[in-house]
Amino acid sequence: MRLILLLALVALAPGTAAEVLTQHNDNARTGVNAEETVLTPATVSAASFGKLFTLTLNASVNGQVLYMPGLMLGGRSRNVLFAYTSTNGNASPCAVYAFDADAEGPPLWQLPLPPGAQYTTDTPAIDASTSTMYLVSKDKNDDGSTWLHAIDIIGGTERPGSPLKIEGSVPGTSAGSVDGKVSFPARHANCRPGMLIEHGLIYFAFGWSSDVHPYHGWVFCYAYDGSAFTQKGVFCTTPDPDQGHPVNFSKDGGGIWQAGKGLASDGEAIYCTTGNGNLSAPDGGRNYGMCFLKLHPVDLQVLDWFAEYRAHQDSDADNDLGNCGPLIVPGTKVLFAGATKYGRSHLVDSANMGHFNDEHDACLQTITTPVPPFPNGQNAVGWNSGATGTFIYVWNATQPVTQYAYDAGQRLIAGGAPSHVSTTSVGGGGGLAVTANGQHDGILWCIGVDGVVHALDALDVSKELWSSAMNAERDALGATGKWQFPTVVAGKAYIPTGNGRLVVYGLTPH
User: Fold this and answer.
1) Which has the closest alpha carbon to 408: 353, 329, 351, 292?
2) Which of 207, 432, 461, 471 has its CA 20 to 30 A from that of 445?
3) What beta strand segments (E) does 212-290 contain?
4) Beta-carbon neighbour count of residue 284 at 10 Å?
5) How much is the pTM?
């Protein structure tokens, strides 16, 4: 054990760890940190792993904390943890924090923001080349002004030209339009998906604070030159009136929710999913409710799309596709999203997404989730373990943690069924992350909405290595919050709670 702890100290030296700069660790949203050498299936157990310390914030982190090693703050090089808080309330205290990631104590800096509105749950993204963090905040005033921020992560201050009030419109005559334009209505829009930075451009998306009509889904693209923001693209999911398929969401909808998962990118296009709303694209229209979308990386025009065969019926029943965001399966251009509210998960070829067929799903594969009636999950992650295979992990509501084996040759989930399942299940599913040393020593980390953290063997999730319930007196997490994800890096697991704390776990001395 002394040797393990010595190796841990070496691995935790500032500047030697992986970076976590965006939600689920990368723009493919795999959730993987493949540079973890300290936490392995051999070192993570109730005897050697547990709670180290707790960091206190003014409100809960909804989303994921970010991590940068080797930053010069407070006069020395440190591994730094960044957190953005909001409690989903109209008077919630929003702030951005920087903490020493390896020691209990007050923040290195704290930047208060205007009080946040409901469901401001976007995970920020950091551009390491400019030491700039981007995030979206929302006022609590009557118009709900929504702002794009560029924050200096060294000084904890707004950069020049920040914040910028987010505004935009598209041509259209859908619900809420005026004079042939549909305008972004900030008052009720909520930025749930994580922020995306790709090729120097900044992307973010909106659903709605509730299903109160009229509303639409929105995606924005901006550039920032160090002194000012420039809007590059605006996309609205449902800009047109209904074209032949009247449902409850006949003229609007199509919110981009994704349960906190960030917009995805393969470097060539932007990907997202949309929720219940009007779908007129099969008839040549521009409404994309209940879809996988592939968007141009600058002007955000639709390049391709897929809608499941019961999209109109499921939309009418408020059975969302877009309650989970797309994962780009590691090493491929294949998209996976599940579990949906209607109980199915989809594999979609990003080069030929399939569009719509009213008799069957025109995608690579659909997998049925067996337990009705409302298998509302969080978000999938994936890991390429080399010769052992590529795996996709999902934690649906009411289900155990589920592991699928991806067949790269067939571009299918092998057997169309789980390869392994865990022994744990909770009512609302949970947030996931993977650590590994390249293609070895994989661990699946899970935050349950029941407040229990689990570490499972990523090769076989039926094997539990550790949970915070094994030694609850020492390791109990407490209540969890909205759309939260683990950040596990450099020998420590950073787990947000629902009561304004971050609990830090790692190897315990004994």
Assistant:
1) 329
2) 207
3) 218-224, 229-236, 264-265, 270-273
4) 7
5) 0.93
